[in-house]
Design a protein that fits this description.
The complex is a heterodimer. Chain A is mostly beta strands. Helices cover 0% and strands 52% of the residues of chain A. Chain A contains no helices and twelve strands. Chain B is mainly β. The chains are: A mainly beta, B mainly beta.
Chain lengths: 115, 113
């Protein structure tokens, strides 16, 4: 069974600074997708960024980028120029490519932005 | 931008009662999902639905749960006899292609008293 581990229950960063959220996963599969979702206090789940395992290039979406290390099974999220609106729970998620099974989530990291 | 719509946003029910949670997925999506998030815990997969039938389900999705898509638009989750431990946020999600990730609804907060 696949597992996703987020070892940081909470992180704090000053506004405009850079923060990195950690995620590791365990799988015997070689072809899969990885996602970061943001959950603000409204509890809506918002897709932040996605990565295909067969792509070596790290995904980037504006201020959000990932460091995908397939051999190490690591998928960290870097947020640059942190903004107050970035404050939320961040969940790392895994899905094997193909098949109808759902996402496997980590327990989440609560990100606090200090003004 | 297309949205997944869930109703109601909050439902309070008595233990033992049946509840139906409703979702309207994005119209051209083909795969539909229900997830559960107990307060303070991670999001857990319940069930996936494709081509009008269940594709996969987790251990959580036992006989008290059922899903259906009665009219080609709505996608419902029924809990037959609610228990206190069913209190959670229930998210519906839909998917067109895996690469693009899932679009989640805003959730239904179910409180069983």
């Amino acid at each position: 069974a696949q597992t996703v581990t987020q070892s940081q229950p909470e992180m704090s960063v000053q506004e405009a600074e850079t923060v990195t959220l950690s995620c590791t996963y365990d799988t015997s599969e070689s072809d899969y997708y990885l996602f970061w979702y943001k959950q603000p206090p409204s509890r809506q789940m918002i897709l932040v960024i996605r990565q295909e395992a067969y792509k070596q290039q790290n995904a980037t979406e504006n201020r959000f980028s990932v460091n995908f290390q397939k051999a190490a099974k690591s998928f960290s999220l870097k947020i640059s120029d942190s903004q107050l609106g970035d404050a939320a729970m961040y969940f790392c998620a895994y899905k094997i490519r193909g098949g109808a099974d759902g996402l496997t989530f980590g327990k989440g990291t609560h990100l606090i932005i200090q003004p | 931008e297309p949205e997944v719509t869930q109703t109601p946003s909050h439902q309070v029910t008595q233990m033992g009662q049946e509840v139906i949670l409703r979702c309207v997925p994005i119209s051209n999506h083909l795969y539909f999902y229900w997830y559960r998030q107990i307060l303070g815990q991670k999001v857990e997969f319940l069930v996936s639905f494709y081509n009008n039938e269940i594709s996969e389900k987790s251990e959580i999705f036992d006989d008290q749960f059922s899903v259906e898509r009665p009219d080609g638009s709505n996608f419902t989750l029924k809990i037959r006899s609610t228990k206190l431990e069913d209190s959670a946020m229930y998210f519906c999600a839909s998917l067109s292609e895996e690469l693009y990730g899932y679009t989640f609804g805003s959730g239904t907060r179910l409180t069983v008293v």
